[in-house]
Amino acid sequence: MSTIDQYLESHAARFEDELCQFLRIPSVSADANHRDDMHRAAEWVADQFRHIRCATEIIPTAGHPLVYAESPPVPGARTALVYGHYDVQPPDPLDKWISPPFEPSRREGNLYARGATDDKGQMLTHLKSAEAWITAEGRLPLNLKFIIEGEEEVGSHGLETFLAEHADRLACDCVVVSDGGQFAPGIPAITYGLRGIAYYELRVTGPNRDLHSGSFGGSVTNPANALAQILSGLIDDQGRVTIPDFYDDVTPLTDRERQEMAEMPFDERQYFEQIGVVGAVGEAGYTTLERRWARPTFDVSGLWGGYQGEGAKTVLPASAGAKFSFRLVPNQDPAKITAGLKWRLTELCPPGVDLELIEHHGAPGVLVPLDSPYIDAAARAIAYAFGRRPVFTREGGSIPIVTTFHERLKADALLLGWGQDDDNTHSPNEKFCLADFHRGIKASARLWEELGKV
Ligand code: BES
Ligand code: MN
Ligand code: MN
């Protein structure tokens, strides 16, 4: 066994304990009440780097701080930039968690906690593999720069600004990101495409006060009715978004891609069974994998208005609102989508209510070339740790900063991922399989060696 693998084995238990420490910090970026926790999480990450002799800095932003670290220099060697995020999604609804979200709990080989897989556990695999090299071998086989942000789940504004001003500091040959998943248990993957996103909030206001729904109903526009009507009007019965020109820039799937997706070992029945849903739906003319990975969509994420308490209350609410987003595919421009959406909303809005549209965040989709020596290096490292070569997949989720890395650093991303489809990301009972955590560290350790040889 190599020195590195020996080191990983003998420190495996401590790695898990450290992940638990990290997971106990409730670093919820969306919630201003967690500001101090965001700083604590950044400090925790920075300390990890300091312990392995990395030059480390906490960089303040207008939002949550960035953690930047450089491994001890290896002159003449290549440089990889490792990206990850220490922020997590809000843990609600709390009553659906079997164990509390910020008290990590081990059950059946999994570690349950908010952020376990997205992205604290995955991010830590790269830190621990760097530790192994630096401690056991005295140095890494390449130069590593780490940029760990605290705003991925809310749009990466601080890191965007940092990159606009200091891209030179992050100069690198390639970017390594582990913030996604494997294709299925036992089938590791390299992701070559991510969807983009355009996220909004819509506020509908009508009468100047709540009204008796019997006395007034039928004579005034009900903002909640109007909201339902508007939202349902954004998508047609073929599952297509009704915004003008919405599909104009969509990069279509190639025949080759469609064939490859069709040949994926995708167990559709099990996919729906696992989430408790009967029957596939979505844009007409596309398969489930195509819909998830390579077609744009519209989804409401939150909806409010009127009476939510116990029993019935006959009220016509003065206002209602929703949060919703479009997932975009490569070549769609979030700014164009906003312009089209505004136009479509004026068409859909009934008289008697006012609309206010708030733009939360937007990011274009990504496709990374597969014919690169870095991809080959990553495939070898993954095969070494997971016992089989990765499949090449796209993903439906978004990592906004990946596009910016490409534009500003002229470096392509290696989108790796050790998670599973049933990890419950953004949902109660998020988990990370501990065996995947350790395989991830092993793959990452091998990746440094393979990238160093490119
Ligand atoms: N790690 C996810 C993105 C992801 C999900 C990649 C599944 C691959 C597979 C990331 O943390 C995330 O949730 N991103 C947000 C971005 C948004 C808030 C701008 C997303 O996709 O909703
Ligand atoms: Mn993530
Ligand atoms: Mn996420």
- Estimate what percentage of residues fall within beta strands: 15-25%
Would you count the extended β strands for me? 18
Q: Strand sequence of the main sheet, in spatial order? A: 1-2-6-3-7-17
Q: What is the gyration radius calculated from CA atoms?
A: 23 Å
Report on the biggest sheet: 6 strands, mixed
Shape estimate: globular
Query: Residue share in helices?
Result: 25-40%
Number of helices, where a helix is a run of at least 4 consecutive DSSP H or I residues = 13
For the termini, the CA-CA separation is: 23 Å
Structural class estimated from helices and strands: alpha+beta
Query: Could you list the spans in which at least 5 consecutive residues all have pLDDT below 50?
Result: none
Description:
This protein is of the alpha+beta class. Helix content is 35%, strand content 22%. It has a 6-stranded mixed sheet with strand order 1-2-6-3-7-17. The chain has a 4-stranded antiparallel sheet with strand order 11-13-9-14, covered by helices on one side. The protein is globular. The mean pLDDT is 97. One manganese (II) ion (MN) binds next to loops.
Provide key terms for this protein:
454 residues, alpha+beta, 4-stranded antiparallel sheet, 18 strands, binds manganese (II) ion
